[in-house]
Amino acid sequence: MNEGTAATSRAADLARYYDLDLLDDPGDLAMYLALAARSDGRILELAAGSGRICVPLAAAGHHVTAVDNNPAMLDRARAAWARADGAGRGGTLTLIERDLTTLHLSERFGLVIVALNSLLLLDGRAAQARALEVMRAHLAPEGRAVIDVWLPTPDDLALYDGVARLDWIRRDDETSERVAKSWSATYDEATKRATVTVWFEAGTDAGAIERVVRVDEISFVGASELIDLARIAGLAPVTIAGDYDMTQLSDASERIVLVARAAPA
Question: Which of 2, 5, 28, 154 is the most interior residue, by most CB within 10 Å?
Fold first, then answer.
């Protein structure tokens, strides 16, 4: 196997394990379906990954454009859409491989989404600010932008101590392998950034084990800071929620779900 083939295989494995990881349903899909039902126009999802949100939205009859910079993830989204057969309900799904921070599309959208902590994976405040500017630039006049990020507590971050921890062991039905996910992380309080290393070990009944490793740099952002970044980007908050039921954000909230409109020029 040459280097290019190995890299492609590794990317495909990581995309498959990402879906295996998200068998623990985050619980946000119903919220996006409700927001989509109230939106007027097409939907844009940035950092769409393997299609967990965009495919059900398109299958529900919406016209969805999904953007991600990972071709292996988009391949899985494409396959999921083919299985969903949502075109029979009038929905469409357009998949685009692009960096979301430099995206320029001619269309404007009634709903623009950055779901489930994807904003935190961008490289620092400048990249996060650009992502919010891209959301604002692609909003239709009455459109809504939705950003969802985790708000870790001190107890959560205490686990970012460099110690390796086993997260789960699951069966991958696609390959009939048993897969173990482990992780370790370190956190820098001064920069509010973390380095998270995840490794997946897949084994067959014959005993062969293969390890695939992923390293992410996480740039955490607090609730007030996210609201300020959104306002600077030209997004005016409409709803500031602390969960997917749209309960008002509080000091006890584990995440912020910000719904915003385009601020007047």
Answer: 28
Write the secondary structure of 70-108 as one string of H (helix), E (strand) and C (coil): CHHHHHHHHHHHHHHCHHHHCCEEEEEECCHHHCCCCCC
| Interatomic CA distance for residues 12 and 18, integer angstroms | 10
Greater model confidence, 125 or 3: 125
| Cβ atoms 78, 49 nearer than 8 A | no
Q: What is the pLDDT of residues 208-238, one digit of tens each?
A: 788 999 999 999 999 999 999 999 999 999 9
pTM (whole model) above 0.90:
yes
Cα–Cα distance, 156 to 136 (Å, whole number): 32
Pick among 3.90.226.10, 3.40.50.150, 3.40.640.10, 1.10.3470.10: CATH of 3-151+221-262: 3.40.50.150
Q: Could you tell me the CA-to-CA distances from 170 to 24, 167, 181, 207 in Å, in that order?
A: 11, 10, 8, 16
**Residue 120 gets which letter from DSSP?**
G
C-alpha span between 114 and 201 (Å, rounded): 29
Nearest partner of 196 among 157, 149, 253, judged by Cα: 157
Going from N- to C-terminal start, the domains of the chain cover 3-151+221-262, 154-219
